[in-house]
From TrEMBL:
PANTHER family listed in its UniProt record: CHEMOTAXIS PROTEIN CHEW, CHEMOTAXIS SENSOR HISTIDINE KINASE-RELATED
UniProt keyword rRNA processing, yes or no: no
Keyword Lipid biosynthesis: no
Name under which the protein is recorded: Chemotaxis protein CheW
Residues covered by the CheW-like domain: 1-106
Organism the protein comes from: Massilia glaciei
Biological process annotations from GO: chemotaxis; signal transduction
């Protein structure tokens, strides 16, 4: 079983801490299946893994496809949202990974990795 801050993996000889986003965001018990994806990130010069339920597409958005994040009030913490994008009929929520993986958590990960 994964905890929000860990395990770690060995990627080409480098130990990389892994954060399970379902646990971090308190979205219930994680389920690991053929759709589970490990995304490797480089944030602030630190390489880490982000475990997510699935990835459907990787795409590039043009500036005219992005609008500012709507004000969500106090019901939802929108600090991590950059805005939303549109591709054809699809609406995408854009997340600021640097803010999501806050410096306090990165420090925690670095402590776990040593």
């Amino acid at each position: 079983m994964f905890s929000a801050t860990g395990p770690s993996i060995n990627l080409r000889g480098i130990i990389i801490p892994v954060i399970d986003m379902r646990i971090k965001l308190k979205l219930g018990t994680p389920v690991y299946d053929q759709f589970t994806v490990l995304i490797i990130l480089n944030i602030g010069g630190r390489v880490m893994g982000m475990l997510v339920d699935s990835v459907s597409d990787v795409t590039t958005l043009m500036p005219d496809q992005v609008t500012a994040a709507p004000e969500m009030g106090t019901a939802f913490n929108s600090d991590y949202l950059v805005g939303h994008g549109t591709i054809d009929e699809r609406m995408l929520i854009l997340v600021d990974i640097d803010k999501l993986m806050s410096s306090g958590e990165i420090g925690l990960i670095e402590n776990l990795a040593t």
